Automatic annotation (TrEMBL):
This is Glycoside hydrolase family 31 N-terminal domain-containing protein. Residues 2-72 form the Glycoside hydrolase family 31 N-terminal domain. It comes from the Eukaryota. GO terms for molecular function: carbohydrate binding; catalytic activity. GO terms for biological process: carbohydrate metabolic process. InterPro entries: Gal_mutarotase_sf_dom (IPR011013), Glyco_hydro_31_N_dom (IPR025887).
Length: 96
């Protein structure tokens, strides 16, 4: 869990705004022809989240997996990754 007020970006190609705070995204490549605002997977999968902390610093979190992965950002200031197999979590930062 990160400080309250942290915002989240990243997660690969998904429809909707670039900010993913409060969203759940599935990283799984699909040919999403005719996609709409509710489509959660498009053409590229990146199990990566960029966190912008309230003090302006940034922190990156990567789930090192090629499997279908759920990235759940619906709980405030919390990043949850879920996949069917074990995987390492790699963090980068925080950076100014």
């Amino acid at each position: 869990q990160l400080p309250s007020g942290t915002s989240f970006y990243g997660t690969g190609e998904a429809s909707g705004p670039l900010e993913r705070t409060g969203k759940r995204v599935f990283t799984w490549n699909t040919d999403a022809w005719g996609y709409g605002s509710g489509t959660t997977s498009l053409y590229q999968s990146h199990p990566w989240v960029l966190s912008i902390l309230p003090d302006g610093k940034s922190l990156g979190v990567l789930a090192d997996t090629t499997r279908r992965c759920e990235i759940d950002l619906r709980q405030e200031s919390t990043i949850k990754f879920a996949a069917l197999s074990a995987y390492p979590i790699i963090t980068f930062g925080p950076f100014d």
